[in-house]
Amino acid sequence: MKLFLILIIFITTISTPVVEDEKIPWREDEKLTWEMFKGNPENVGNFVASTNSGISLSFGIRTIEGKTKVDYDVKSYFYPYNSWYNKDKVNAAILAHEQTHFDISELFARKLRAKFYAITRDNNFKEVARNTYKTNEEERVKMQDRFDRETNHSRIEIAEIYWENYIEEQLKLYDDWK
After folding, report:
1. Residue-level pLDDT at 61
2. Which residue of 33, 110, 128, 135 has the fewest CB atoms within a 10 Å radius of its CB?
3. What is the β-pairing status of strands 67-78 and 24-25?
4. 70: exposed, middle or buried (C-beta count within 10 Å: 0-12, 13-18, 19+)?
5. pTM of the predicted structure, to 2 decimals
6. Average pLDDT, stretch 39-59?
């Protein structure tokens, strides 16, 4: 039986392709390039590109000598294999729009770090952290949607400029939470 289980794990490991660099962390000094978009272009109306980004959260809680110790890690990532573009229809302005989507995810990662800092370290941390994450994620999605709506997916240049500047300012406000 053990040999059979090992064989299944071995076969599964061999037959499952490993995709390297499945996620790229947000970096202040590294902007998105079209080469980072590795997903297959989708036929979705008039859309010519799509950025898949989000926030990753992990945390651990332990009690040492009656005191609750909490470790957590919050990161924003770009997912290359879930992001795509139609190379015949994109330009630098659309890439800047996609970068702003990624920047919005980083903004909400910073906001989440700030919120977690304020949570009391006790036995309720896990529940409060989950609710805080959920609320933060709902706000992130709403802002992503609002950004697309107000810029008409990068088609309204003046709105695009406003949003790029606004997100840049917001990132600076949360600089302490990089």
Report:
1. 86
2. 33
3. antiparallel
4. middle
5. 0.86
6. 90
